[in-house]
Amino acid sequence: MNEAKQNLAAAVRDARTGLGLSQEKLAEILNIDSRTILNIEAGRGNPKFEKLYTLVTYLKIPADKIFDPAYKEETPNLQKLLALQKDCTEQEAVDLIPMIRDLLGLLRK
Questions:
Q1: Phi, psi of 81 (to 5 degrees)
Q2: Per-residue pLDDT reduced to its tens digit, 86-103
Q3: CB < 8 Å & 24+ apart, contacts of 38-46
Q4: Tell me, what's the pLDDT at 62?
Q5: CA-CA distance, 45 to 39, in Å (whole number)?
Q6: CA angle at 28 for the pair 23 and 32, rounded to the nearest 5°
Q7: pLDDT at 33
Q8: What pTM did the predictor assign?
Q9: Which of the ends of the chain has fewer CB neighbours closer than 10 A, N or C?
Q10: Which burial class, exposed, middle or buried, applies to 86 when counting CB atoms under 10 A from its CB (0-12, 13-18, 19+)?
């Protein structure tokens, strides 16, 4: 298995299991064949872009985790926090910024 497929397989498996989803449930949510997810996680096949895009977007997998061989997830909680912020609407971000600043101020005292 080449490095890119190995990175993709691990990233998808880790993200899926991190959400507590089975391959079958994820396939159902995304309306794709569960064999596609099985093959991706096994590092087999060459998934079509549309399916890969849907999968990676839903699981919020950073592109670096798949395509950068030097990528190391040294800050998994920071990555989770960043994934949450990417899921915010603009108005939610506006509302959250002052709260986050206040919380950080309290934490750093």
A1: -65, -45
A2: 788 999 999 999 999 999
A3: 40/8, 40/9, 40/12, 41/9, 41/12, 41/13, 41/16, 42/9, 43/1, 43/5, 43/6, 43/8, 43/9, 44/5
A4: 82
A5: 6
A6: 85
A7: 93
A8: 0.66
A9: C
A10: exposed
The predicted pLDDT at position 69 comes to 64
* Torsion of Cα atoms, 53 then 46 then 22 then 89, to 10°: -10
Tokens encoding 93 = 């971000």
Give how far the C-alpha of residue 100 lies from the chain's centroid of Cα atoms, to the nearest Å.
Answer: 23
Q: Which one is the CATH code of 1-71: 3.40.50.300, 3.40.1400.10, 3.40.50.360, 1.10.260.40? A: 1.10.260.40
Give the C-alpha distances (Å, rounded to integers) separating 55 from 9, 36, 41, 46, 89.
Answer: 12, 10, 12, 14, 21
At 25-78, the pLDDT tens digits run: 999 999 999 999 999 999 997 889 999 999 999 998 888 888 776 766 667 777
Residue type, 12: V
